[in-house]
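Loading example: each entry is read as two labelled lines plus one structure line.
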Amino acid sequence: MKKNKSLLWLFALILVLSAFLAACGGDDGETTTPDPAEPADTEETDEDTEGAAEGEAQAGGTLVYGLDAPPEGLFSSAFYGIATDAEVIGIFDEPLIDYNENLEPVPNIASWETEDNKAFTFKFEEGVKWHNGEELTVNDWVFALETIASPDYDGPRYTNVSTIEGAEAFRAGEADSISGIEVVSDYEINITFDEARVNNLTNLWAYALPEAAMGDIPVAEMSASEFVITNPIGIGPFKVDKIVQGESVEFSKFEDYWNGDVNLDKIVLRVVDNSSVVGALQNGDIDMISLQPVSGPEVEPLENVEVITYPGLSYYYVGFKLGKFDNESQTIVEENPKYQNKQLRQAMMYALNRQEWVDAFFFGYANVVNAPVPSSHWNSADDSELNTYEYDPEQAKTLLDEAGYVDQDGDGFREDPNGDEFVVKFSHYATGNPTFESRAQAITQYFEEVGLKSELEMVEVNLYYDMIEKDDPAIETFFGGWGTGADPDPSGLWKADQLWNYPRYNNPEADKLLDDALNIDIVGTDQDKRTELYIEWQKIVNEDLPMLYIAELEEIVALNNRVGGVEYDVSGSNSPAEWFVTE
Amino acid sequence: MLKYSIRRLLGMIPMLILISIVVFSLAKLMPGDSLSGEIDPNNTNPEYIAEMREKLGYNDPLPVQYFNWITGFVQGDFGKSTKYKRPAFDVIMEKVPNTLFLGIMSLIITYILAFMMGMYSGRKPYTLGDNAIAGINYIMLAIPSFVAAVFAIYFFAFNLNWFPFGGSVDILVETGSAEYYLSRLHHVLLPALVLGAMSTASYTQFLRNDIIENSRKDFVRTARAKGTPIKKIYNVHILRNSIIPLVTFLGFDFAALIGGAIITETIFTYPGIGMLFLDSVTNRDYPTLMALTMLLSFLTLAGNLIADLLYGIVDPRIRLE
């Protein structure tokens, strides 16, 4: 009998242990599942963070770069789909136009001139070499643009080319070339857009494709060709030597790199499972890697590793379904009455202790936001101009009382103004990451504390966004995240005629501000004037709260002390050419 | 036996057709599709997603979609992976060598360990050693593989530095050189050990029970009476007879070899079929998912057939007509 009991204990222990480990390893759900909160291209902030090793750059050496999710292997700027592939591409390829720490475009290989924001003239650097020895000319860019505009193209970038004059006709097969593109010489090109917009340049696709290598491949077969999968060619400081699918890539220094010296001899990129990241960093098996928030507290105590954070470009929110969208007519056709009361939404915002929540579930690697523009963007409103909705359950209760949400039957929960039962139905996506359920539970508890009965539903992630997009009646309030790119304009996620305006927020006044901020006749090229309009808009959505803004995430990177020359700002890291290692 | 094999092979055709219908319906019944994960304002827009749905035929009626898929499939066109944008066949074939290598290595480890333990247990049943072996075996079976994998990495890779912590090969060695194959072996050993050592229970216990059973049979008594050394009786006479049920296991292992080990492969970042399979499910990568399921179903059927044929070969008393 006694023996049985100790065996029971052993099994219980194993069970507990496995549950614990599942919790640790589970966080990769957040990276590997398609979560719209993952920003695809990160751009820079003004807060530069310097790498670990001090002193002079040294030539030579090998740096091991870790990835915590396997890349898909589409190593071409025009064809990749996920951020992990973009990270790999960033080592061997470069954009023609770069972004500075304020997310403004700056010349890299191409510099530009324009008078009216409609017709642009681009001049290329001479002597830029592809890894196969060919010289980069404007024709490689034209090749990239025409590939993307081709009807056979199977990647997601057409939106970055569609604004060029004649791109539609080219795609429809009515023209042999895009009429808005005019090649002047090998190093000069004119591009005309279909209309003048302030963000024509930031929207334009600014990567070239090697025409000499890829020119003969039909567009439909390009994404499966060797120049994408096994032997990608770029113009960056490192060239790809070897790819072992799904686990590692070897890069070596490109001797003919156009922009100065390259310090490192080699970069080896390898995929590391989340459960091994801390051990691999401690042992020096990897030199640098982006961390999940959950690993941060474990990595920080390591003596040989420095943890660096820089601002990210994504935010999390709790959205309300305020209406229904009709995709045919692109309008919001119906209003849902349940959450139309603004005081109710504001009360729910006051009820949330967002700081506590962020500290508990993002380990401090996130900041509370009060408007849907990440603070690194130049058009982000300062907190002093917004209502910051500090945690105040009393204020929440007062607002609810005022709005008529009072407990009429004495069950401890409030009824709606008509005296009917009121239940906040909150949905969160489920990926197998066990922390998702507890963080969602925490939000419903905040609501319950002010007397709003709440129900949580975890929905499988693939179904989740489908249901939200189709305005499924089962979704009433929902957790979500968005990543914003270099272009800070929120129109695509907020205007009433947009499918991805998930709360179905319909405020013509707010939409007009967004339109004006892009209207070249009103703002010209004056960024201050645009900023004013965007701040005005943020004040409105901060007051209206079609969603409860929760937090913006920080990006976290671990760097071994032997690595130097690495700098981060909102746009990600500096050029790998400047990285070095000390032995 | 030839006639039997042909009959069995023909019988597989309606089975495979049925499986294909089930596989297709189940895949399509999963919520969302391969594009519902691509919603990201940085990367794309709603028009692109709508257009791709149309292009991929997701808007067609289901019977049409099934027919399109199955006609391609029987002609050897498995479709293009929606995630990797390459033919699903290429994506799968790329992972097969890794998975096979890992599977065979772990199977060898399982067999060696199971034979040693099973033979000892069978020879000395109900002793302390036998009980200890059974206890260890069942504990190993009960420990989830991801727990074992994480601990193995911690002790053998990070603390003792005996093995690399992940990957299938060191990328810096030259492909095809002797060093390359050594590096592959070095990388595969730890995951193979975790997989192999954890699944010895069924083999060990089968072998043990069979040895015990056979040791009571008449031919053993005869051999003893003739004065054959005990060692020889066990290692030759009994073992030969006891291997028969194990040989049939080999047939079932056949599908498992290709099927891969989802969790172990992921933790060791060992790119194989298991990882690909899980990935294709979460990403709704229908072509890869359906091709893999069909492949595995076929292998299971083929494995069963092989098991039955092997039965006849190792035990001539069983006749196949």
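The two ends of chain B are 6 Å apart (CA to CA).
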